[in-house]
Amino acid sequence: MxxxxxxxxxKDTDLTLIDLFAVLWQRRGIVMLVFVAVLMVAxxxxxxxxxxxxxxxxIAFVIDREDxxxxxxxxxxxxxxxxxxxxxxxxxxxxxxxxxxEGVQIVPAIEGSEGNEAGDNRVLGALRSRIEVVRIGNxxxxxxxxxxxxxxxxxxxxxxxxxxxLWQRESTRxxxxxxxxMETSEQLLAANAKLAQAETDLSVWQQQAGFIEPDxxxxxxxxxxxxxxxxxxxxxxxxxxxLMADARKNAQSIDALLALPPIANNETVRRLSGQYDxxxxxxxxxxxxxxxKHPAMIAVHRELETVQRHxxxxxxxxxxxxxxxxxxxxxxxxxxxxxxxxWQEKLTVRHEKAQGQAALLRAVELMxxxxxxxxxxxxELRIALAAFQSDVTVMQAASLPETxxxxxxxxxxxxxxxxxxxxxVVAGMLRHYFDQAIHDDGKLEDRFGIPLYARTPQxxxxxxxxxxxxxxxxxxxxxxNILAKTRVHAGRAHVSCIGSAVPGEGKSRLARDLATSxxxxxxxxxxxxxxxxxxAGFARVGNVSDLTAALAGxxxxxxxxxxWEDRESFDYIGARASVPGSFATGLLQNGLRxxxxxxxxxxxxxxxxxxxxxxxxxxxxxxGAADARLLVLRRGYSxxxxxxxxxxxxxxxxxxxxxxxxxxxxxxxxxxxxxxxxAENA
Length: 682
Fold this sequence. Notes:
Layout: H1 4-7, H2 17-26, H3 28-45, E1 53-61, H4 74-86, H5 89-102, H6 117-130, E2 131-135, E3 141-148, H7 151-209, H8 214-250, H9 254-258, H10 261-264, H11 267-289, H12 295-350, H13 352-386, E4 392-396, H14 409-435, H15 444-448, E5 452-457, H16 466-486, E6 494-500, H17 507-520, E7 525-529, H18 547-552, H19 557-560, E8 571-573, H20 581-600, E9 605-609, H21 618-624, E10 628-634, H22 640-652, E11 659-665, H23 673-681
Parallel strand pairs: 5-11, 6-9, 6-10, 7-8, 7-9, 10-11
Antiparallel strand pairs: 1-3, 1-4, 2-3
């Protein structure tokens, strides 16, 4: 099929939404081919897909029971636990047993897997993957759904799972009540036995020791408890005093002593410290105003020393008080501990029997209270077990799905048609996009109205070699030499400017190869890198000057030119670093002509590496200053619209490219290339 010449016009190829329909009509062949291909693939795949049905049920939980751990913020956590239990192994294993009895098969049976642990785990995993459990809003209701390729089977599976969960939950809760009742009954029997033994011990003790007044023992115990509290307070005071005494011993300066709370909170120290701060501020203010030898400064300095001495004395006095406080705290602690020990000894000696009686009375009371509590709990558990009600209610039974879930086959066919349309449109646009690329079809001169000067081969293409590249560049150099003779300027070098429409088309490589060809032919050649925004970076960092300085008039061209001793090499001049946009354009406008005039008297050929025409306006300035203008196109990369826009911009500036150079063409064997290769390898 031929599309390039029949469908492509010479107008601007930027598409609008209206142009899209025209492009698709022009590319109707590839559009229809892709559309039909996608539909054929869909026709092969859709019949293999089976519809899926979903059965749904709703389960509600009762939350107003005392034994339910769901109140306030615990509702969500309780529901999460219930949802996890519903998809647990115990529930699903019970449901699988029910389903096997009804002849429902979850997954296709594998020979030898029945009764095997791995096979059972596989079936459990398949069943769990079909179950979905979600909470409905903020209510204590969950929605359980099961998907299957058979509508009736999805309902059976869901009923089996819900029945298994309800039975397991009821059984677990009843079993928990029975276990609690049994445990409480055993505890009640043990508590009654302990109570009987405690009452017997109390009766025996009273018969042997007589009756002891309980109030006297209580008062002595209260006094001991009071002394214990006072002793604890005295111990904390003693520890605090010891810490302050240790801190006082470790303090190496007055400032360290001032950091201690007892010293800092001392009334005299606090007053002298404030007075010292005030005098020191006054001293600092007068020192800045008068200097150290002023009479006022001398008086204030003496006052500062006096206050500092008084403060130090007060701090030392307060520090001594810390030692006194430690001795007082130790003495207070010893006194209280002695009193407490005396009371304990009195209580032990005089009221040993009373303490025994009180202990037995308390033991009897505790045993009786424990027995009463356990009896009440046992009665409540028996009532709860007799009137047991489940905390789960099935609000909506498992439904029988009437329609399959998305995607149905109708949905799949609609999606396939949409995908086919999209793929067809994309294929048409891609074909249209790639048809805009420049090809080596021999029609470049007719398409753009500019002669084709040379074709340079792609480096990694077949038959590509140094000979073929040199042959192409040499042919271009011959054409430029012919132009130089027809456009001769006495005493001035011929200037060739190599440009391109967009970056990446190979203009910089061609400029270097062309400069090398001129230098090899014995012509004194210089390569001028005119792309100040993105220089090639060949300029030496150690040079005194560069092209930017030469254009600005801040350096000489001799310092900016980079030369090699090899006569077959070309000289180079360029920028060492990038130059901002508007500044680079201003430099070229003001200094390019002077630089070229100066270089024109020293060289035979000047090759300019220009920035892309469509990127910056610098390319127009460089092209306008050249004698020969070449526009580089790259096969398969350059777009016709870009080339037309570049030529239009040049034409708008009154410039016409002299020729085109097509780069990255498919390699062709060079004339005499085999002999040349053998000569190179010899």
